[in-house]
Design brief:
alpha+beta; 7 helices; four-stranded antiparallel β-sheet
């Protein structure tokens, strides 16, 4: 702000100082370091959270997790969706530190990453409930990408399609969620993002 004010005052006041002298006077004050180091941003995001030793919710297998998602959808049980997903503490301590978004060239602040994930999750659950909720879906199974994406000790399962015989348009394979986090023998939904 000081740099802008100096430029305005210099431009409005009479004088015959060359523009390069004005620039030289203003340049040092124009540098503002507003970037918060990642370790500081992560420490702030973790404030008030208890470090989990492992994934708390979710399921003991990927098969069980997907079946529970389908049951929650059939029952229209919104609370069940939350219990099957990574929570804020798990995101802060178990997922985010090894995620590519935490490192260059992205270096997304954890609070922003969490906000974006939660927004996507809300939209995904709403879409799934709108299109498939409250009815017997005829769950037949699912398939995901053949190999998981390894991020440190975490494994992410993506590209999952759930086969249903009783969807709105009959039999179909649909992406009810975007990714599953596997860690230490536990599985939880990382993202309910979907597009149908």
């Amino acid at each position: 702000m000081g740099a802008v004010l100096a430029l305005v005052l210099a431009a409005c006041s009479p004088g015959d100082r060359p523009a390069d002298e004005l620039a030289a006077d203003v340049a040092p004050t124009a540098v503002v370091d507003s970037v918060i180091p990642m370790d500081v941003a992560l420490a702030r995001f973790r404030e008030g959270l208890i470090e989990p030793a492992a994934l708390r919710g979710g399921a003991a297998s990927r098969d069980e997790l997907v079946e529970r998602i389908v049951r929650a959808l059939e029952a229209g049980d919104t609370a069940a969706f939350e219990a099957l997903a990574v929570n804020r503490a798990e995101f802060a301590w178990l997922y985010f530190p090894d995620a590519p978004i935490a490192r260059p060239p992205y270096e997304l602040p954890p609070s922003l990453a969490w906000f974006r994930l939660q927004e996507g999750n809300r939209k995904g659950v709403f879409r799934a409930l709108r299109d498939f909720g409250g009815r017997e879906l005829g769950y037949q199974g699912y398939r995901c990408a053949e190999a998981a994406v390894q991020e440190g000790v975490n494994r992410l399962w993506t590209g999952c399609l759930v086969s249903l015989t009783n969807g709105p348009a009959g039999a179909a394979s649909v992406p009810l969620f975007e990714s599953i986090l596997e860690r230490g023998g536990r599985f939880a939904v990382l993202s309910y993002g979907n597009d149908f």
